[in-house]
Structures are given as C-alpha cells and as structure tokens.
C-alpha cells in the first residue's frame, strides 16, 4: 500500500494528535471514542507518530474531542436541520461519527491541512470543505446561506492566535 505523505506546517501538524488519540481509543476494548476511520487514516499516513504516542496531549485531545462531540450531539438533538461549522477541522471524523442525515456541515481549514484531508474525505451534498483561514470572512457567506441555526466549533485553533486575533 502506498502511504500518503504528510506535508504540514508546524501548527497544522498538531492535527495529528487528536487523530492518533481517536485511533488509540478505538483499539481499546472500552475506548472513549470509536473511530475506525481514524484508525484507517493513521495506518495510511507516511508519518512517525512515535513522538505523540507518550504525550499527555494525546489523552487531553481525546477527552476534548469527546466533549465537543457531546456539544454537537446536543445541538443536533435540538436543531436536527441546523448547520455545524468545524473551524480547523484537520482530519477530524466528526461528520462520520455524529451526522444525523439532516444537518449541513462545513469543514474549514488552511490549504495544507485541507490538501491532506482531501486524501480521505470528499465534499458531499450536505458537507462542504472550505479552504480558508478563520481570520478571513469569505467562508462565512456559504455558511450564512444555510439560514442557521449554527453550531460553530473550534477544537484547538484559537490557542494559536494572538489575543487580538482571538
């Protein structure tokens, strides 16, 4: 099998931490998250994950992902035809894990992250990948066109911003 090359900037590379965390949890008998797609992606990447395997960030990222999943599930329970916007989506599989068959989804990330993402995910009628920085505003137009309500999540992006940007 030909492995997919990872070519990310240093900040974008951190998207591999929650991916690995979900894969590790999936391999456990009673893991916090079950995500076979994450396992597949980890196995498909030409990347040395060993630097993250013992990191405390790994378990923290997995717990954080679970908390965000719970928030999105609550939103979808209240607004089944609402719109979910995932800022800095990386290689997240939230759509695969939580989609209710009715909501609109937007996955927003920087060009290098989305180039990698497109190796494993495609746009669908209710799911669109948007190549942009959250600091820009062009991405807001297609999101606003859905009419809302919106659930906008940013799992680990704002921590990299200067205070004024956040």
Characterize the structure shown.
- With 166 residues, the chain is of the alpha/beta class.
- The chain has a single domain, classed as Rossmann fold (3-Layer(aba) Sandwich).
- Helices cover 39% and strands 15% of the residues.
- It has seven helices and six strands.
- It has helices at residues 16-27, 36-44, 50-53, 56-78, 94-98, 111-117, 140-144, and strands at 4-5, 45-46, 83-87, 104-109, 127-131, 150-154.
- A four-stranded parallel beta sheet has the order 5-4-3-6. A two-stranded parallel ribbon has the order 1-2.
- Helix 5 (94-98) links the parallel strand 3 and strand 4 (104-109).
- It is globular, with a radius of gyration of 15 Å.
The proportion of residues forming helix, as a percent range, comes to 25-40%
CA-to-CA gap between the ends? Answer: 41 Å
The CATH topology turns out to be Rossmann fold
Mean pLDDT: 93
Strand order of the largest sheet: 5-4-3-6
What descriptive keywords fit this protein?
7 helices, alpha/beta, 166 residues, Rossmann fold
